[in-house]
C-alpha cells in the first residue's frame, strides 16, 4: 500500500509507492478480457514465436502504401521486452534488440506466463499499471465485474494511454473502443448481439478513489524524504498516511499567486519563441498523424493551465494548434497579442511560430485561446502560523515537474535589504531608538574592515539625505544608515545576535556587508526569523507534518510544536519585537512596501529586499498571526532587470496571497509591552514613537531640538518621505552628498 500525503483538511497532495498496481494471475482473468486484448494488440499471439512475420509484412506494406511509418508490428512479447528492458525511442537498433529479446522470452516462458507479465506490467494511464488496476482506476470494478464495452475500452489503452484515456479524451477513446469491439466480432470472440449491446452502452468512465487535487508537490516530496529517512523502504509499502499542516485554501492561493506573479513578470520581458519543433512532414496522414501528435504531446507535461500544443498553421491573424484529445485550438485576436512578434517572417526559423512549433496555450477566462510561455524566472513562497511555526502554504518553484529543486528550503540566496530589520533589532538592544538620528552620508570602508576589499556603499538612487531617524531610514531602506548602525554595535555582536532568529554565523560573516544582507539565507529561514517579530519575540520552528497514521488510522507520531507565549523560548525582548513591528508597519504605510496598503489593513508589517544588480527580489511580511515570504530570481543568478525590485516583483505576489488569506479576518492591534515608553506624535508623520524605558535619549552626544532633529542638519524637502522608486541594494549611483549634511553636522556612527 502506497504512502499517502494529505493536507490538514484531508485533501490528497501526494502518493508514493510501487505504482498503482493490482497483480492477478492469468487464469483469474476473464476469457473475454484476454480476447479483447488479443483483438486490440496481437491476434496471432498464440501462433507466432515472438515476432509475427505476417504482421510485419502487413505493416511494411501499409507503410509503403502510405509513405509513412504507420505501424511497428509489435507483438505482445515484443512489448513485454520493451517495457521490462528497453526504452521507448523509435530507432531501428531498439526494434532489433526488441525482436531478439522477444525470441529469448518466448524460449524461456510459456505463452500464458508472457501474457500474465504483459497484463500486469503495461501502463494504462491514471497512474495504473496492469488491467486489474486500470479497471479500478477507471470504473471502480474488479475485472470480473466489467462489461464487454468496458473491457474493450481498457483493451484499447495500451496503444496510447494519453490519447485514448476515456476520462481525458472520451471522444477518441470511444473510437478506439468501437475498433476493438469490431475486431472482437471479426475474430468471433463476441456475437453480433454482444457487439450491438456493447456499442449502445454509454461510456461512463470516471476517476475512482482518491485523486491528487491540490498543487503541493514540493510539500509531498518533503514528506516523502522525511518518511524514507524514518522508515526506509517500508515508507512505500506499509500504507502510511501523513497529514501535513498545509491548509488547502492557503496552498491554492499561494500556488496561484506565485505563478501569476512570475508569469506577469515574464510577460514584461516579451515572448522568447517556441519551446521546440516537430517536423510535420515526417508524420503519417489521417488518424495516424493525430496519434503521432498525441504521442509527441504525451512526452510534454502540462503546467497548470498552460497546455502544450503543436502548431498546424500560422498566419499573421490566426494560429491553429493541435492539443491533447485530438482537438484543434484556434488562436486569434487578443490571444495573439503577446506572441504576435513571433509570427513575423523576418525572424529566424528558431524564433518563429510556424507549422510544427511547440507552443503553450491556455484558455483565457474571457473565452478565447491565448499563446503563453513558461517563465524562465523562478520563485518561492512560504507562509506559516506565527505562533506555532506550522506551515500553511509552501510553493517551491513555478512547476515541480519542470524543476523539483525546492527554492523554499534549498535555495541559499542573498536577502538584501529584507535582512536589515535583524540588524536594526540588534541596534535597539545596544541603545538605538527609532528616533535616533543617523547620518545618511557617504562612507568609504577600508580593505581591512572587509577582509581584503575596499568598499564604498551607496543608496540605490545614488543620493544622500543627511541626518534622519532610524525609523525613517528603515522606511526608506537607506543603506548608509544600516551600515553606520552595524559599525556602532559591532559586527561580532550582530553576528551573534542574528543567531537568535535561526540564522547561522557561517552564512553571515562578521563584515559590514552584513548590514545590506550580503549573507545567505533560505526563504524558510526568513519565515522563521520574521515570525519572531510577529509573535512578540519567541523562537518557533517551522514544521510541516502534523501526524503520521498507519493504514488503519492509528496515530504513530504527532508533532508537539513550541508555541509562542507558552513553551517556546524567548529569542528577543518583547519590547524589541513590538518596536520593530511598529517600524515595519511604517515600511508598509509610507515606504518601499506601500503597495500593500491596497489591502486596506493597518496591522501589516514587512520589508522589501533587493540585492546587487537586482539578482534577488524579496518581500517578507506579516501580521500578528501569519508570516509570508516571497522570493523571485533566476536559478543561475543574473539581473532581473528594471522590473526586478522587491517592491515591484515580489510584493505583488505577497499581496495577492494575503488578500485571500486575511479576507474576513479582524485586524489585530498589539498593546505595548511593559517597559515601553510611548511619546505621542514623535514618530513618523505624527505617529507615536516608542522607547525602551532605559533608552529614552536619542543621540546622547547631540543636543536635539523639540522636533527630534539636529540643529544645522539638512531637512528633507517636501515629498522626500515617500518611498524611492527602487529598492536600495548597495549598487546605486555615485551622486555627491549634500554639503551641509557632510560639513555642518558631526558625523556619527549613530
From TrEMBL:
Q: What is this protein called?
A: Penicillin-binding protein 1A
Q: Which GO terms describe its biological process?
A: cell wall organization; peptidoglycan biosynthetic process; proteolysis; regulation of cell shape; response to antibiotic
Q: Which Pfam families match?
A: PCB_OB (PF17092), Transgly (PF00912), Transpeptidase (PF00905)
The protein's topology relative to the membrane is: Single-pass type II membrane protein
The record places domain Penicillin-binding protein transpeptidase at 379-653
Concerning its family, UniProt says: In the C-terminal section; belongs to the transpeptidase family.
Q: Which reaction does it catalyse?
A: Preferential cleavage: (Ac)2-L-Lys-D-Ala-|-D-Ala. Also transpeptidation of peptidyl-alanyl moieties that are N-acyl substituents of D-alanine; [GlcNAc-(1->4)-Mur2Ac(oyl-L-Ala-gamma-D-Glu-L-Lys-D-Ala-D-Ala)](n)-di-trans,octa-cis-undecaprenyl diphosphate + beta-D-GlcNAc-(1->4)-Mur2Ac(oyl-L-Ala-gamma-D-Glu-L-Lys-D-Ala-D-Ala)-di-trans,octa-cis-undecaprenyl diphosphate = [GlcNAc-(1->4)-Mur2Ac(oyl-L-Ala-gamma-D-Glu-L-Lys-D-Ala-D-Ala)](n+1)-di-trans,octa-cis-undecaprenyl diphosphate + di-trans,octa-cis-undecaprenyl diphosphate + H(+)
Taxonomy-wise, where does this protein's organism fall, top ranks first? Answer: Bacteria, Pseudomonadati, Pseudomonadota, Betaproteobacteria, Neisseriales
Q: What is its EC number?
A: 2.4.99.28, 3.4.16.4
Top-level taxon: Bacteria
Domain Glycosyl transferase family: where?
A: 10-185
Q: Which UniProt keywords apply?
A: Antibiotic resistance, Carboxypeptidase, Cell inner membrane, Cell membrane, Cell shape, Cell wall biogenesis/degradation, Glycosyltransferase, Hydrolase, Membrane, Multifunctional enzyme, Peptidoglycan synthesis, Protease, Signal-anchor, Transferase, Transmembrane, Transmembrane helix
Does the keyword field hold Glycosyltransferase?
A: yes
Question: Got a GO cellular component term for this one?
Answer: outer membrane-bounded periplasmic space
Q: Where in the cell does this protein reside?
A: Cell inner membrane
Q: Where is this region: Disordered?
A: 698-750
